[in-house]
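Entry 12.
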Amino acid sequence: MGLVRGYKALAKGESDFNIIGRWRTWGIVSLALVVVSLGGLLLRDLNLSLAFEGGSAFSAPISEGKDPTVPEISAAMTDAGLTNPEVQIARSADGSRIIRVEAKTVGVLEPVVDKLAGISGAERDAISVQEVGPTWGSQISSKALRALIVFLILVVIYISIRFEPKVALASIVALIHDLIFAVGIYALVGFEVSPATVVAYLTIMGYSLYDSVVVFDKVRENQVLVTGTSRMTYSDMVNKSVNQTLMRSINTSLSSLLPVGALLFVGVYLFGADTLKDLALALFLGIAVGSYSSVFVGPPLLALLKEREPRYKQLRARASRGMTPAAATAGPASSGGATGPAPDDEDDTEPPAPRSTRAQPGPGRQTTVAPRGRKKSRKKRRR
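Predicted 3D structure (tokens):
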């Protein structure tokens, strides 16, 4: 029953997870991810494809009756003059097997074609050759870097106008966190970085910003709750906003990860469509880490930045003392001891005196004598 109630609260945006209060935990996790990713970039270079560094790529169909192995093909390519060739046996769209060879060596064509024709049994005309110069690869790299810088500048300007500069700073920090992680994983594992990977990185940036903007828009909507007459601090308001959008973030992430995961597993590993691997793998990693940063990196950082402002710092101090704003602004009690209202002045009019009885001569006879004050009042009435 507890899980059911928790899920219903999460679905309605009424959950109360202390996400912002545990910002140190998320900071340690994020810092560890960044350190590991940067270590991968420093210790191991990125495995750039031929489009960035230049080289030669060969593709040859395998004839019937031929069954070459990857070690045999690699040895033959090395003998032909290729340096560190990458050999792969894959399947084409029609189901036939093909040999793919890539090497960062330019100018060695004829010996490689001869070796491939002998191993695969294919005709020389059926072997495709692609040669990329290093100059073209450097141009592609510089264009990709310029596109990244222009994208970041435009994003900072837009978010600063739409929200405020501190929101833009938190969004960019979360975005850089995602990019460092995605690129670092590629360096650690040794995945090849191709133009499709760059396209995936740009897609990751857009996805990460979209998820962050959804959370920050809710923060801006709930900012009216943080006033001088409330006990809610800015961090409490951000935590409430994150909980209200948490289910939406989960649904968005799952609806994106499931198709990309199917594309990666079914398309690449079952059907051998290696051309989809670079795009699908980068998208899967980026969407996963982008969902994490939009909840556990950007909002806590925004709360820390805003809590430094004098207004929200005073609210934090009042909340920590457990005082209401009215009690905090009220002056101390006046000296004199009494804290309640002053008693009303006593009425100067004397209360009527009780009637007195005086014995008169005569048996059993008594005469009631009114007090003097009563006689005066009666005379006044008669006048």
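Annotation: The chain is about 60% helix and 10% strand. The domain at 16-47+136-321 is CATH 1.20.1640.10 (Multidrug efflux transporter AcrB transmembrane fold).
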